[in-house]
Write a structure and sequence with these properties.
Blueprint lengths: L1 H27 L6 H8 L3 H8 L2 H12 L3 H6 L8 H17 L2 H13 L4 H4 L1 H19 L8 H22 L11 H13 L6
Helix pairs in contact: 1-2, 1-4, 1-7, 2-3, 3-4, 6-10, 6-11, 7-10, 9-10
Length: 204
């Protein structure tokens, strides 16, 4: 019992520091954020920040690792052909659009840092590639079941993902999706065009 009680406060402190770091990094950028400010926001001593994360860079990478951990999201990302490709991909497309555009501040921060130091890409690439792998599996299965044309499942997955990644980039760096604006039907419209292009005529 004692060890369990000991771990809980430690984890709570770590999460408070990470929460504070996410907020401040997104508000002020990496350079504009100090470990002292993070400590104040997290209600801990600055020494605690260094003890748990070593350096400001170590803290930033811990933030990136936590915020791009899509393991649970991918497990819940149930994507199997139901026989209605339009319905399948519309559901997934809505989820992707909503989840991706809700994290624009963090995405902008991460991509800015990756631009400055390309080696950081290795720490975040699992997130987009994980989603693409899920989509690729869907298109491979749809092709096997005769629902889709003889397409390259990987290219189909990248093409589908790219529409939503484009929205994320535009919203992050320009403040809004300048290409489709606030059109609520844009996701459904894109999915319909996409499905019409890859679906077998017998299932159209």
């Amino acid at each position: 019992m004692r060890s369990k009680r000991g771990r809980a406060p430690a984890m709570d402190t770590r999460n408070r520091i990470l929460d504070a770091a996410v907020a401040l990094f997104c508000e002020r950028g990496y350079k504009g954020t100090t470990t002292r400010a993070i400590a104040v926001r997290a209600r801990v001593n600055e020494v605690t920040v260094f003890r748990k994360f070593g350096t400001k860079q170590g803290l930033f990478m811990a933030v990136v690792q936590r915020e791009t951990d899509v393991t649970k999201a991918l497990d819940a990302f149930e994507l199997r052909p139901t026989g209605d490709m339009l319905a399948d991909l519309t559901r997934v497309g809505r989820e992707m659009y909503s989840n991706m555009t809700a994290r624009t501040s963090l995405f902008k921060l991460i991509m800015t840092e990756v631009t400055r130091d390309p080696s950081k890409w290795a720490s975040v690439s699992h997130a987009p590639f994980g989603v693409i792998a899920k989509l690729e599996g869907y298109f491979e299965e749809a092709r096997r079941l005769g629902m889709a044309r003889d397409i390259d499942p990987h290219l189909a997955a990248v093409a589908f993902f790219s529409f939503f990644f484009r929205a994320l980039v535009a919203t992050s760096f320009l403040g809004r999706d300048v290409f489709i604006g606030e059109d609520d039907g844009a996701v459904e419209g894109f999915v319909r065009i996409f499905v019409n292009g890859i679906q077998m005529e017998a299932h159209a």
